[in-house]
Amino acid sequence: MHIEDGILSPLAWGSWYAVTTGFIIPGIKEINKKAKENLAYKPFLAMTGVAVFVISAMHLPVPVTGSCSHPCGTPLAAIIVGPLATAVISAIVLFFQAIFLGHGGITTIGANTFSMGIVGGISGYITWKLLRSLRSPLWLAAGAAGFVGDILTYLTSSFELALSLHGNVPLLKQWMIFFMGYGPTQLPLAIAEAVFTAAVLQVMVNRRPDLLPGIKLLPKTSREVKPNGSYQ
Fold first, then answer.
1. Per-residue pLDDT of the chain (232 residues; tens, 9 = 90+)
2. Nearest 5°: CA angle at 92, between 128 and 120?
3. In angstroms, rounded to a whole number, what is the distance separating the alpha carbons of residues 1 and 213?
4. Which domains does the chain show, CATH number per domain?
5. Under 8 Å between Cβ of 147 and 190
6. Where are the transmembrane segments (predicted)?
7. Inter-axis angle of helices 138-165 and 171-207, to 10 degrees?
8. Separation CA 123–CA 146 (nearest Å)
9. pTM above 0.85, yes or no
């Protein structure tokens, strides 16, 4: 997902910056609003950002694409702090990874944020909400969110690359070529992210339900976490 500097044209990376800004601005407004309502929100958001930084820093190079494969952490972040806040977190994470770890680039932060923080986060969040509305067990909904968010992140990265680099090759064909380049490394990582997302969220709900008010436990318990941390 970490597309490097020099791969996308100025028009391409500038366009992705513009699109990403459309999510970052409302994300910042949401964060400021929640921080005023709850003093513990910013520290919790910072901890979530650290988690995304660590998870997404574990990467495997993919020479075919000029990029790399890695888990994202954004589906989990979107579930616990919201998809708009996750977009902001991702932009910050990608900036520091580019500066200190050499992962990705400065010009491509917009494109990388869009794929990992926006598409990955929102698709994971929608998957989570949809499955929970169908009374799916928490672990299954969280696992599916992790898997879907991870895979769609790389479908988006592949599209970003294909859109800029397909030349005379049909866009759809080049898109699939890039995605197949990610496939051998990304599929097992997506499965691992599914397991990780399910395990972390289940532990958080069981041990610190006060951090996630309103999230139900497994349907068989028929209990729901109240905002004060008690059950009904």
1. 688 899 999 999 999 999 999 999 999 999 999 999 988 889 999 999 999 999 988 876 666 555 567 889 999 999 999 999 999 999 999 999 999 988 889 999 999 999 999 999 999 999 999 999 999 999 999 999 999 999 999 999 999 999 998 888 899 999 999 898 888 888 888 999 999 999 999 999 988 887 786 675 544 444 444 444 443 3
2. 25
3. 32
4. 10-221 (1.10.1760.20)
5. yes
6. 44-64, 76-100, 106-126, 138-155, 175-201
7. 150
8. 9
9. yes
Q: Where are the alpha helices (DSSP H) in 58-170?
A: 74-81, 83-96, 109-112, 120-133, 138-165
Supply the DSSP symbol for 211: G
How many Cα neighbours within 13 Å face the side chain of 217?
Answer: 19
* Cα Rg of the chain (Å, integer): 18
Provide the 10 A C-beta neighbour count for residue 10: 8
